[in-house]
Amino acid sequence: MPASRLIKKIGVCAASLGLALLLVSPLMPSRHTQTLPSPLPPKPLHRVRIVIDPGHGGVDGGCCYKSNMEKHLNLAVAKALQLELEQLGAQVKLTRTSDVALAAYDGVPGRHRRDLAARVKIAREYNAHLLISLHANTGPPRLKGSLTFYRQGDNESRRLAGLVQERMSQLIPGNQNGILPAKFAVLVGVDMPAILIELGFLSNAADRERLLRPGAAFPLAAGVAQGVLAYIQGNDAVAPTISPYPVPDGDEPYHESECINADGE
Questions:
Q1: Secondary element (H or E) of residue 106
Q2: What is the pTM for the complete model shown?
């Protein structure tokens, strides 16, 4: 083949190859092109609104053991529980975030009931799906473990209470007193599933060690959070324990705001 024809043929082939590459190149991935990440699935408590109510606060210290006051314990567990629930995707609001009362100590009778009404108002205005009120207890030294009250007559509150108690007992063996119905103001004042957890007894040496040691709030919070997750996922407690306590007939938790200095005092 003459050299001129060979050069011409090579030129045609090169042009054809260039056109082919030009047409194909948009379809070929570039090493500089960043692949967009797939959207993450929503977290299990996505869009679930929860109000956590750390009981007492301010002028109302709740029960105590020596210098250890219930109001501080309640708030520490509430903040740990907020972190646990937010990591699961929940929207969380605390009725108080510091050592304050929700009703001023102004000498007008009924301050405590106004304080409870303020907590209920927060839960209602937040349009919460769940309300969790946190407390601690005192009593004879033999009594120990957590106890969860639910709104009397409400099956959803009962299911939530059973699951919370079950999960807390799994994470903290022996931490189980069971569940009981109650007509406490903070429970009956709302129209969403609501529970009040007595986290343990400051009057019991074993409970006190568990409640007051550094970092104690986190296993308690983890147990409550796992119970909430199980509730939202539609589970039922395997066999919720009914507490041996008598069912309270008043509208407030039946422990008094008292301070003890030693076991049973």
A1: none
A2: 0.81
